[in-house]
Every structure is written in structure tokens, then in C-alpha cells.
Amino acid sequence: MRDTQLSEPPEPTEHYIFPDSQTVVLECGFQWDSGPDRDPLELERITAHRAVRALAELCEGLIRPMTFSVTRHWVDEYGWPAVGKPSRGNWFLKTPQSPPDARAPYVDPQVMETATLDERSMLATVDRLLDDPCEAPEGQHLAWAEILIVHTWARLSDADRHIENNTLRIDDHDNKVRRVRVPLERADGHMWVTAPETGVWYPFLLRVDKSCGTVYPDGREYDEFIEMTIEVNWSLWWHSGEGRAMLDQAVGRLLRQGWRYSNPQPSPGPAPGT
Predict the structure, then answer these.
(1) Residue 247, helix vs strand vs coil
(2) Helix 40-59 × helix 119-131 angle, to 10°
């Protein structure tokens, strides 16, 4: 699937697949009632549902997930990971359209299949993971640990000038290959691309896990944090342009819903001479 020449290296293209991901990291804080009868599993469900809904909001019109993975473990009364692993600790959701190389990132997965991978099916998977019978050791309770979307399609800008003969050409800096040919798919009135072969980074990788949070100057205190990491693997959605504008719009929707950057953004310094 790669277009190379034996005599001379092909000319580089303007866009490329990064050797290392570029990241946007957001966090969301939760303030719990201090009542002693609050079910820990109820709180786990609240944070997990918030994570899934944020992923769905981020993906809207930009990313099409092809797999969804969520893990669980035991935690102590303070929320710290405890010794031992619960049964069926890794749940993996895919569709008939998932790529042949789509595998769970961890061993011994509980594999499920759905016709459509969307917010509803992801929420159902989280609920099954939390509700699956599993006897907790004394002083511990079940908690979700990590939510992953590894295999993705990404939407191209509608007038991308890098498209020729229904394919996109892009350099793969990770594998040190130029002008990789990426087939296009047209869906929902737009053009979408994904990794053309095994061993090539997918356009986006999304992860949500628990976090200690960062210190902001607003003085608000939270009982728990979750953190979303958006790994951008192709320059089409990182460098300035229509692709980056689509990413910024998606991140902006989460910021308006109460998410924030995981580190305070620097404030402008004083004007010269003040």
C-alpha cells in the first residue's frame, strides 16, 4: 500500500504521521456529598458516565471510534489501587467494521460486539463492567480504571488539497516512510481516513483515567478528578488549518461543559513599562 521508488526517495508531503503523539490533556473535577451512606459504586458510575459522554461529545463530527475498552480494579477506602485483580477486569467492545488487527490492549478481555459504537453502546459497556458480579475483598470496592479508544477514523476537511484520485498521501515519520497512500471513505457527507495498514498510528487515540488533579488559582476543592488525554497522531489535526480548527471546536465544547486543561494556562504578563 506504500508508494515508494527504488531509485530516489519520493518527495516529502506537507503532512505526516508523528513519531510521537501530540497531546491535549483535560480534567474534570467532582464534589461529592459527605454522607456516609453514599454507595461507592454509584460514584464510579457517575464519573464513568461523565467520561463516556465527554468522549462522545469530543468525537461528534470529528472522530469515529472503531473500538472501546474499559478496565476495572479494586481500590481501598481512599480510592488507591489495592492488591489483587477482580475477575473479568478488561472489557472490549468492537463492531463488525472494526479492523482485523483490533485487539484489546490487555490480556484476557471480555469481548463484546455491537452494531454501532456510539454513546449508548459505550455507556452500556461501562454499566456491564460495573454491574458484573464480583465479590470485593474486605475494605475494598470495585472501580473503573481506564477507558480507551484506540482504533479511529478521523474526518478530513471538506476541501483538503492533499487528496488525489480518491486517496490521501502522507509521510509516516514513525516508520520513516514517505507518501503512504491512505484510502478515503465517504460517510455522513464527509471524507474520513484511518490507518492504512498494521503498524501505522491511527489518527487519534483517546484515553480517560483517574487523576489527582492540578492546582488552579480559583480555590475550588474537588473530591475526585478524571483526566482525558487526546493523542493526535497525524499533523492534519495538529498544525494550523481546518483540521486543527475542528479539533479546537471539539475541545471547546468540553471546556464549556466544565472540563478544563489539566494545567492552568499562563496568564498574560504585565504590559511593558508597568
Answers:
(1) helix
(2) 160
Q: Between the CA atoms of 129, 130, 133 and 134, what dihedral angle is there, to the nearest 10 degrees?
A: 100
pLDDT per residue as tens digits for the range 52-85: 999 999 999 999 999 999 999 999 988 888 888 8
Burial (CB < 10 A; 0-12, 13-18, 19+), residue 149, is buried
- Within 8 A by CB and 6+ apart from 260, the residues are 26, 27, 28, 216
The cell numbers describing 184, all together, are 478515503
Q: Are 112 and 132 in contact (CB under 8 A)?
A: no
Cα angle vertex 69, ends 68, 74, to 5°?
155
Contact 170, 11 (CB under 8 A): no
Task: Give the single-character DSSP code of 235.
Answer: G
Integer Cα distance of 197 and 217 in angstroms: 46
pLDDT tens digits, one per residue of 136-181: 888 899 999 999 999 999 999 865 555 666 778 889 988 888 888 8
Residue with cell 479494586: 74
Long-range pairs for 9-12 at CB < 8 Å and ≥24 separation?
9/178, 10/178, 10/179, 11/178, 11/179, 12/171, 12/178, 12/179
Instruction: Give residues with Cβ within 8 angstroms of 90, minimum separation 6.
Output: 69, 71, 104, 105, 106, 107, 108, 109, 110
Q: Could you tell me the three cell numbers for 101?
A: 488487527
For the full predicted model, state whether its pTM sits above 0.90: no
Q: In one letter, which amino acid is 206?
A: L
Question: Which of 29-38, 87-96, 196-205, 252-261 has the lowest average pLDDT?
Answer: 29-38
